[in-house]
Design a protein that fits this description.
It is a single chain. By secondary structure, the chain is α+β, with helices and mostly antiparallel strands. It is built from two helices and five strands; from the N terminus they run βααββββ. The protein has a single domain, classed as RelE-like (YaeB-like fold). It has helices at residues 8-16, 19-34, and strands at residues 3-6, 43-45, 52-57, 60-66, 69-77. The chain has a five-stranded mixed sheet. A hairpin with a 6-residue loop joins strand 2 (43-45) and strand 3 (52-57). The model has no long low-confidence stretch (mean pLDDT 89).
């Protein structure tokens, strides 16, 4: 299993969202870190950012960087995830 590192932005998003969604998102991230193929349907590479991936969990999007360590950069609602 890969080590998971959450950015400050991602931690704040998890605290602010409803508790049941926070638990569900953490479970999906953990299952992806344990076995990359387990979430293959829900993970896609982001075209606008090299090396970045997004994990889909319901209406939430997790922006992450997968290397030696799985870095969770941001967690946003679907409508706001790609605006910047």
């Amino acid at each position: 299993m890969k080590e998971i590192v959450y950015s400050n932005t991602a931690q704040k998003a998890l605290v602010r969202m409803p508790r049941n969604w926070g638990v569900r998102i953490r479970d999906k991230i953990s299952s992806y870190a344990a076995d990359l193929a387990s979430q293959a349907n829900n993970v896609k590479a982001l075209q606008s950012m090299d090396g970045m991936l997004r994990l889909r969990v319901g209406d939430w999007r997790i922006v992450m960087c997968d290397g030696v360590v799985l870095e969770i950069l941001d967690i946003k609602a679907r409508g706001n995830a790609y605006k910047e």
